[in-house]
Fold these 2 entries.
Entry 1:
Amino acid sequence: MSELAINHCSKYFKKDAINFCAVQPITMHVESGQFISIIGPSGCGKSTLFNMIAGLERPSEGEITLSGMPITGETGHVGYMLQKDLLLPWRTILDNVIIALEIRGMSRKEARQRAIPMLQKYGLGGFERDHPDALSGGMRQRAGLIRTLLDDKQVILFDEPFGALDAQTRLQMQNWLLKIWNEFKKTVLFVTHDIDEAIYLSDEIYVFTKRPGRIKAKVQVDLARPRNETTMMEARFLQLKRELLLMLNEERPHPEFDGNEGDAHGG
């Protein structure tokens, strides 16, 4: 049984009294512990898909299940981290990362006791009492991820979390995320516009078409783990990059993917 299943989900919006299709029917089955990336042109519906999975928007048709249980239109089942860290400027880093625990009814004292070891282990030790404006962009994103992990959802959605970071910090955060993912065994769906990032992080990559979004291809990333910077220089990495660049080029022919579980190519 797939941990997360998106079954024939589409999304229409009203625009000038006309139904506007943002996402064509999509089917994805994500196994427990997988790292899945989604790439595609801007405005192709990737964030809309995430909002449907998170229960922030209801699909116009179709169903979403988690471990076999329907969650369509329900919030609170998955973790969700955006490009903006959304840290509250008036709260310390420690009190920012415990927000989800407090919302669930845990006392601030107990929540802090749970959070402090994670801050110390994952690079924010000594910054617990600082406010967000004292931290670099990478450190703020670390705080955002720790907050998401403390919420303890098995499935985590990442919507371009490193998009605003410089190249060096971005690579550091990618390596840090892989370390966290390996330790916590979470199921991850990751939206990015960066092909290198998608290949470096993922087990599989879904390629979306331009609006209205649909799945064009599913690509297996058959690179050994653990990965490091030398992985990006391997011949297979460069081959995957060429394939994905061609798929994203609307002017070139590409293998079609019908939304079922078959791969788009033999890769």
Entry 2:
Amino acid sequence: MATASSEAARSGSPDPADLGEQQEHSPTRQPPAATAPPPAATLTDAGELLRALAAPVRIAIVLQLHHAPRCVHELVEALDVTQPLISQHLRVLKATGVVHGERRGREVVYHLVDDHLAHIVVDAVAHVQEEAQPV
């Protein structure tokens, strides 16, 4: 006497009893596999980078430099902040590798070292603006 399982095997169709078991073990229902965290030094450096980006004036500087390289006087004008304050924030951004200054004659022109950082700032600003929108 043939069982439903052996008939299903011969006919090529799955056994109905097996379908429930397959659905329970479906890859789409599995929790994501745990991944090992990055090394502690990497997490520390990422924290330092995010701290460097945390000040509103530094966020504004990154947004300005995302559009084009700028010298200090252009940043002062665009952000309506004093020159010493802009210079102080640029020092922090430079120390953490966010910006790089290039001397051109009497001026230093600053630019972003990496566009990934601009995306972090742009996405953060966009997220806050979306949250502020009434529903």
